[in-house]
C-alpha cells in the first residue's frame, strides 16, 4: 500500500478535536481568514468565529469590502476555557476597531 492511499492517521490531523476561536472585526483581511481556515481545517481543528459585531462581519480584500461571514459566538459570551487557541487576524481596518 502506498503512502498516498493509506488511511488517515492521527498524525494527519494533529489538531483534531481542538477548538480554535477566530476573532474578527469588520475590515479583517479576508485572504488571511481564507488561508488560515483552510490550513486549520486540514489539521482537524474545530473553528468558531467570534466577534464584537453581531450577526455578520465583513472582510476587506485590499481594494474594497469582501464577503460577509457569520458570527458564531458573540465575544460577550465566548469563554477562554472553551477554546484551545485564539487566532487574531490582521487587517488595518479591523485593528482600528
What does this protein look like?
The chain is α/β, with parallel strands linked by helices and 97 residues long. The chain is built from two helices and seven strands; from the N terminus they run E-E-H-E-E-E-E-E-H. Strand 4 and strand 5 form a beta hairpin. The N terminus is likely disordered.
> What composes the largest sheet?
4 strands, parallel
Radius of gyration: 15 Å
Strand content: 25-35%
List segments where confidence is low: pLDDT < 50 over at least 5 consecutive residues: 1-6
What is the number of E strands?
7
What is the overall pLDDT average? 86
- Topology pattern, helix = H, strand = E: EEHEEEEEH
Shape verdict: globular
Q: Level of helix content?
A: 10-25%
Strand line-up of the largest beta sheet:
6-3-1-7
Give the helix/strand class.
alpha/beta
Write a short abstract of this structure.
The chain contains two helices and seven strands, in the order ββαβββββα.
Helices, strands, pairings?
Elements: E1 19-24, E2 28-29, H1 30-42, E3 46-51, E4 56-60, E5 65-70, E6 73-74, E7 85-88, H2 92-95
Parallel strand pairs: 1-3, 1-7, 2-4, 3-6
Antiparallel strand pairs: 4-5
Give the key terms:
single chain; 97 residues; alpha/beta; 4-stranded parallel sheet; 3-stranded mixed sheet; 18% helix; globular; disordered N terminus
